[in-house]
Structures are given as structure tokens and as C-alpha cells.
Amino acid sequence: MQYVKFGNTGIEVSVLGFGAMRLPSEYKRGKTLFDYEESARMMLRAHELGVNYFDTAPGYCDGESEIIVGRALKNIRGKVCIATKYPVKSDSASDCRRGLEKSLKQLDTDYIDFYHMWGIDLDTYESKISVPNGPLAEVRKAKEEGLIRHISFSFHDDAENLVKIAEAGQFETVLAQYNLLDRSNEKAIARARELGLGIVAMGPVGGGRLGEPSEKIRALSSKNITSNAELALRFVLTNPNVHCALSGMSTMAQVEENCLIADRNEALTEKEIEAINASVAENKKLANLYCTECGYCMPCPHEVNIALCFRLMNYHRIYEITDYARAEYKTIGKFEWMPGKDASHCTECGECESKCPQKLAIREQLRETHSVLG
Ligand code: SF4
Ligand code: SF4
Question: What radius of gyration, in Å, describes the C-alpha atoms of the chain?
């Protein structure tokens, strides 16, 4: 495993992080049952192979992820970093304290290494988090009490706002979306790193957007790359501004494969990156034929998030990363950054179609989207 200095935190972090958002489970009698034992085996194996950063959140795995992570890492707690999150709903310090206490209890630990303000945007930061005696003041207090080691944020907003939040100087690390298909945060990440923040890239590898079998994605590189997961992980780790690539792992095979990749220091060459960029741009053109995500068709009177539904449909249609698209589709309406409703809420009123500059058969495409992803 390779390790890097994690911003100004004083920690040497493994370049691969274990994301506990898609832990092994099975669906039985209308309920998702998570496999605690297999999850623990996977996390301990990842640690054995060098991973020292484990990321969870109160809402992952139907609310069980923190408990699973806490139990799995109990005996090696001092050797690993645990990151979890606070879903900011209000500007109340006591709500924040309750969230923190609940996470500490679920994780069965005395402290959290990286406590994130979860999925924030600039407006939330200014109007709810950094207000006098608000959540930020509360987490600083908790840090003094030793309940938190580092104050972090995860981010869903325009890239320039990531920079503004980082420049506010209140956070030590950031967890941000960055992968082969989504580079929107690239410059912002570089600036945040310059400011001394630790950078964790989310959604980049096995089990994530690019971890599903896709010949199209694999064909992007001529290197001896054996899977999409490898290409995706190598791409992220080639960026010197990323300290740790977070992979949501669901199987032991993914743990083994990702750790093996993170073990070998094989950055992609400039030529390979260029070839990948050209191919991604080509695929983007293809995706735009279906939907450019311009949003002119919205708002829908029934709150269907048409552009988001079609983006996910394109993940299936263009990039063939269907499992990821299905998993994301399931979360529409569940998180602030997945607003609106899924395609099943379309009543076929037709109001949106006259507003689409592409003249897309939105109703028909929504039906198809739900039948494939729903
Ligand atoms: S056709 Fe469906 S998606 Fe379009 S506006 Fe009507 S309900 Fe919304
Ligand atoms: S108006 Fe058309 S192209 Fe634009 S987001 Fe809606 S469906 Fe997609």
C-alpha cells in the first residue's frame, strides 16, 4: 500500500480508502439484510493489506453502516481512521451534538477521526454551519473535548464554491466527487490541496461509477489494465492532488483487487490521459443526443427530476455501468443532492416535452428509464 501525507492533518493516509456505503447484503422477505460478518472480514482484510481510512455515514446501508464499521474495527481502533458525517438540517448546535453523540454510540468509539459536515453547499455553510453558536462552533468544541480529531466536509455544489468553503479556513479535509467521468472539481481540489486540506475523492472506483464491467471504459487505455476498476482507480491516483481514493466495496474480490492496484505505483501517462479524455468527450457527445441535462423541461408539476433520471439512464446506456445507475436511482429524493422524484412519478401530462430544445420524447424515455433502473 502506498501512503501519503494527508494535508496538514499530520496523518499518513493510505491512497485507498474503504467506503462502507455498499456493504454486502441480501434482500429477503421485503427487507435488506446486511452481512455483518462478511463486512467485518472485508474491512479487516483491507486493513491487513494496508488500508487505514474507513468512511461511513449515518444514512449508509439503511442506517446500519456505522454499527457495522464500529464492530468490525473495534479491535484495531487505534490503528485506523474512521470518517463519518453529520447531515446538516438546521443551524442548531444541539442538533449537531445529538448527531455526533449518535454516531459515537453507533460506532461504539470514543472519538471520530474525520467528522464531516455532510454533502454541503456554500449556502448551507453560510446560513447554517458557520453561524454564531452553530454546528461549526459545536464541532470545534467537540474537537477540544477529544471527541473529534479533524473537522471535514463533503461537498455537492459548484466547484468554485468548494474553493470558497476551503478558503474559509475552517476545515482540514474535504471529500469531493472526482472521477474519470466527472472532473468538475479538478481545479477546486488542486486549490484545496494548496491550502493544506487533505483530499479524498469519492465515487471513483470498484463498486462505484466506473467499477462495473464495461468494455467501452476498459478500451480507454492500452496499458496492461485488467478491469474498469483498475483504470478508474489509476486515473484518480494519477492526480497528485488526490490523497485518498475512496472505494465503496461490496465484495472481498473488490477489496483484494483495489488493494493490489493501490499497492503498485503505476500512474497513467500523459498520453493515456489524453486518450481517455478524447474517448470521454466522444461518449459525452453520444450522451447529449439523449439529454444534455440543460434542465429547460423542469420544473415538472410532479417533481420528477427529468435531467437526473436521464443522466443515470445515460450511465446505463452509454457507459454500461448499470448497477451503479440503479443504486443511484434508488436514492433520488433521499439526499439533498439527489432532489426531486424518480421517473415513476410521471403522470404523462406532457407539459415538459414542448420545453425540450432536443424535442425528446420525455414521457417515453422516462418509462424506459424506470423499467431499466427502477
Ligand atoms: S410528462 Fe411527466 S415528467 Fe413531464 S411534466 Fe408531466 S409529469 Fe412531469
Ligand atoms: S430539456 Fe430536454 S435535453 Fe434538457 S434536461 Fe430536459 S429532457 Fe434533457
Answer: 20
Q: Cα–chain-centroid distance for residue 68?
A: 19
Which numbered ligand comes closest to the C-alpha of 293? 2
Task: Please give the number of the atom of ligand 2 that sits closest to the Cα of 293.
Answer: 5
Length of the chain: 374
CA distance 369 to 365: 6
Q: Name the average pLDDT for the chain.
A: 89
Residues touching ligand 1 (Cβ under 6 Å) are: 300-302, 304, 306, 346-352, 362-363, 366
pLDDT grade, residue 246 (50/70/90)?
very high
Q: Check pocket membership of 292 for ligand 2, CB cut-off 6 A.
A: yes
pLDDT tens track for 286-340: 777 788 888 999 999 999 999 999 999 988 887 777 777 888 898 899 877 789 9
Q: How far apart are CA 176 and CA 155, in angstroms?
A: 5
Q: What is the pTM of this model?
A: 0.83
Place of cell 453523540: 101
Burial 174-200 (b: 16+ CB within 10 A, else e): bbbbbbbbebebeebbbbbbebebbbb
Are the CB atoms for 188 and 160 separated by under 8 Å? yes
